[in-house]
Amino acid sequence: xxxxxPDGSWWDWELWRFDGSRLRLTAGYDLTxxxxxxxxxxxxxxxxxxxxxxxxxxxxxxxxxxARVRRYTGDDARVVVAFDIEAQTGPxxxxxxxxxxxxxxxxxxxxxx
Length: 113
Known about the structure:
Elements lengths: L11 E7 L4 E6 L5 E9 L3 E3 L3 E3 L2 E3 L3 H11 L5 E8 L6 E8 L1 E10 L2
Antiparallel strand pairs: 1-2, 1-5, 2-3, 3-9, 4-8, 6-7, 7-8
């Protein structure tokens, strides 16, 4: 699934809250005091990404990635979001995946306390 993001500066990203089922992935230009974008995943069944990262490039998942999710979950997930990020320890990209029952894009300022 290709995520459509609203216009904005979505440089910094982090897994803000995850209770084992519901995941809030937040984004903004500086996450110290606030964020302006949330991807809210419900019934997460597969998660492979770091807790914090910058400038993801969202794309369609490959057939091999879909097969990996199917192999771990035993079923086809309704939503599989794929993105690439720059490796922290050297050149190249790291592929990331999130599989869930649904995803919602929420846009608006959220202050952090």
